[in-house]
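Quality-control log, excerpt.
Job 1 of 2 completed; input and output follow.
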Amino acid sequence: QVHLVESGGGLVQPGGSLRLSCTASGFALDDYVIAWFRQAPGKEREGVSCIELSDDTTYVNKSTVGRFTISGDKTNKRIYLQMDNLKPEDTAIYYCATMPALPGSIPTAQVWKKYFDRHEYTYWGQGTQVTVSS
């Protein structure tokens, strides 16, 4: 049974850092993509970053490039989201999600579209709150 548990959220001042963790179980990580999404109050859930753990290929939403970094630890079945230089607009509930990784024959543009579409994901964690405020 697929199970995802997020941790690491909290209250941080603007410019600060947090590292979120997603602990995965019940599936073979090499065959799946793990994504971080976030949802702010009154807004749509948006994709933040994804990683294919078979070869550590990463995808990052351009709104967080240079500030957020996704990484994976297959041994401990954890996926991390390092968030630096946090801004008040990063305040949201952060979720990890997973779906089977797409084959290499799929065009890159289509991969990006699918990986950042929340409707493509079947399995979700319960979320962790991140609040950026002074």
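Job 2 of 2 completed; input and output follow.
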Amino acid sequence: QVRLVESGGDSEQVGGNLTLSCAVSGDTLDRLCIGWFRQSPGKEREGVAAMGLYGKKTYADFLMGRSTIFQMSRKNTMYLQMKNLKPEDTGVYYCAANSGGACFRSGPLISSTYNSWGQGTQVTVTS
């Protein structure tokens, strides 16, 4: 069973940067599709970024150019770097996983694509 643990959430000022981590156990990143999602106050959970098989990356339009998803295989950890933070980036950020093929069969930024979820990490952007 895949287990995911997020960390790195913090309170950051507008324009600042944060890098979130998702430590994965139970399988290796090269066999998985990993997605980052966020849930902001009063809003539904939305996909932020994902990495599928062969390193294929997908980003939500609202974070295009301000985020980078990358992995460190030796740590079996996926990261989400966010730059130039805005107040609307505030929310709980989750990472999620499924087998690598899942992202080909379904959208990588759709929550139903994934069957394993972390507990989330809080990001707060203040002005």
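Post-run check on job 2. The mean pLDDT is 94.
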